[in-house]
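quick one before i forget lol
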Amino acid sequence: MRKLALFFIISALLIAVLAAGCLENEEKSTPTPPATATSSPQPTATSQIPTPTATPTPTAIPTPRVPLSAPDIVTKVEPSVVTILTKWTETGFFGQQVTSNAAGTGVIFGADGYILTNNHVVEQAETITVVLDNDDEEYPASVIGRDLLTDLAVIKINPRASLTPATFGDSEILRKGEYVLAIGNSLNLPGGPTVTDGIVSNLGRSIETNSRVMLYDLIQTDAAINPGNSGGPLVNVYGEVVGINTAMVGGAENIGFAVSSATAIPIRDSLVAYGRVVWPWMGIGGDDLTPAKANELNLSLSTGVLIVRVYQGYPAQQAGLQQNDVLTHFDDQPLTSVKQLQKLTRQHKVGDKVKVTYVRGSDTQMVEITLAEMPR
């Protein structure tokens, strides 16, 4: 019996050892992957194949502007052109009171009734009436602001419905020879505005008006401009207003002038904001320095802005600038012309401090100037 029991004990031990060996062999033949492993590798920060985080947006291709035909230009612009009728009272030759009438043109630039026109159209008016395109109703208008020095004015009506503002373009990119249209109330003819066409004859013209005021930065055009056109738009081939028609030369053929949009837009906006033109100013009168002028004054340079007058009590005089000083830099930007100086100055506000570099004799100096409001 003892031998039989010992046999069963030894047999059980052998079976246990064999089972353990089989289990060990099975684990070695089919290893279990570690918990941190994955079935496919994931890119890390140093991976050469980036994982997109968002759907890329295709780059927008700007839509090229397409020139319009003359009829399409008129269709686009005409709803923004208005007739302006004015009345005022004068004293007649025998002392009697005489009512005078005149007509001009305006351009809508605000859907709520703001209209840009010429100062000389409304300056003496006692009553102003506006007639809209395709609307026989007469709307009373009030003057928001006028500027004699640019012959511009803003008036306003209270329309019954939203108006169609004109699109203003950039007159700075105009070139001589470009096609333009003039639209306006020529001779106050019934039936709506008159349209004439022509080209840009020249740019940057200056003329003296009947009021003895010099107008600057004018567009000259051979598009016919007649009495009544004053205040109307000069329009480019895209139907954009690039000028406000303001004057014609009597006795000449097809020589008319328009205030450029580069001048008109800031004047317009200032009149709306303040009721007057607010431009920052140093307080000088300047001229473009030429080699001939530099030689005449025995100056050490030949380009810049020559100071021809310093106004007393204004920032330039307070900073020590003098006649015949030459301005060479404005806020570190080189100066080559008075027009450039005006543009740089008008990018600032009254009260801003600017750095001005100038040459006096053979010495170069720099001063800080606080801009004041330009008197109008």
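fyi The longest helix spans residues 2-29.
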